[in-house]
Amino acid sequence: MISNTLKITVRTKATTTVNPSTQRVVNQLSALSASRKQPKLIKLSHEDLIKHNTIQNAWKSFTRKQETKRYQQLQQQYESIHNAMDTLKAISPSLYQMANKSDENNWYPLNMRVPTDYPANMPWVYNHKNQGKA
């Protein structure tokens, strides 16, 4: 008797026909917006909240120290390069000019594209020649 009174209903997906290109755009936009979704707020007790904030502050302090150390290392490298170039300028101005010579012809053309997972709007040009300064 009980089995007669209970009905099991199964939900099925709605059968709507959408243009495949429209569906692809919707899928791409939903994938992009997924990274912007906010996580749920954690409901913590007062003690756990204090622990959480302590850990977050310790992590901020740790990363700040790492960034400061990296910045100081880069600053020392820059000073070393600058001193080496000043020494080179004092010793041999011709070598200094050769070291600072700009190589405009050796730059990768900005209008060339690297192959990606998705097809580009413009096809790849295998026999590309720079149209700019020649």
UniProtKB/TrEMBL annotation:
Residues 64-91 form a coiled coil. One of its GO terms (molecular function) is structural constituent of ribosome. Its main location: mitochondrion. Keywords: Coiled coil, Mitochondrion, Ribonucleoprotein, Ribosomal protein, Transit peptide. Pfam families: MRP-L28 (PF09812). GO terms for cellular component: mitochondrion; ribonucleoprotein complex; ribosome. It is found in: Mitochondrion. Gene3D superfamilies: 6.10.250.3440. Transmembrane segments: none annotated. One of its GO terms (biological process) is mitochondrial translation. It comes from the Eukaryota. Belongs to the mitochondrion-specific ribosomal protein mL40 family. This is Large ribosomal subunit protein mL40. It comes from Candida tenuis (strain ATCC 10573 / BCRC 21748 / CBS 615 / JCM 9827 / NBRC 10315 / NRRL Y-1498 / VKM Y-70) (Yeast).
